[in-house]
Amino acid sequence: MFNAFIVFLSVMILGAIIFGTAFTATSGFSTRFIKWYFGIFFILGIVAAILTLVGVIQL
Predict the structure, then answer these.
(1) Interval 10-59: pLDDT, tens
(2) Based on the structure, what is the number of domains in the chain?
(3) d(C-alpha 52, C-alpha 21), whole Å
(4) DSSP string for residues in 2-21
(5) Distance between CA 24 and CA 33 in Å, rounded?
(6) Which of 11, 16, 19, 37 is a Cys-bridge partner for 45, taking CB atoms 3.0 to 4.6 Å apart?
(7) Residue 19, in any domain of the structure
(8) Cα-flanking dihedrals φ and ψ of residue 30, to 5°?
(9) How far apart are CA 20 and CA 37, in angstroms?
(10) Is residue 34 part of a domain?
C-alpha cells in the first residue's frame, strides 16, 4: 500500500516538474489546458498506483 502511494506521488511530482519547466519556457497556459494536463497526470498516477498495488509493477 505504501509503495502505491509513493508511485502516485512520484507521478504527480513528475507532472508538476514537467509543467513548471514548460510554463517558464512559454508565456503561459490557459486554465483549460492546466485542468486537462493535471487531470491526465492524476489518472496516470491512479493507474500506476493500482498496478503497483495489484503487483504488476514491483518496486
Answers:
(1) 999 999 999 999 888 887 788 898 999 999 999 999 999 999 999 887 76
(2) 1
(3) 28
(4) HHHHHHHHHHHHHHHHHHHH
(5) 15
(6) 11
(7) yes
(8) -80, 160
(9) 12
(10) yes
In whole angstroms, what is the distance from residue 26 CA to residue 14 CA?
Answer: 19
Residues in the chain, how many? Answer: 59
Enclosing domain of residue 26: 2-54
Is residue 23 in a domain? yes
The alpha carbon of 22 is separated from its chain's Cα centroid by a whole number of angstroms, namely: 15
Residue indicated by cell numbers 519556457 = 25
Cell 508565456 belongs to which residue?
A: 27
- Phi and psi torsions of 39, nearest 5°: -65, -45
Is the model's pTM score more than 0.85?
Answer: no
Q: How far apart are CA 47 and CA 44, in angstroms?
A: 5
3-state SS, residue 20:
helix
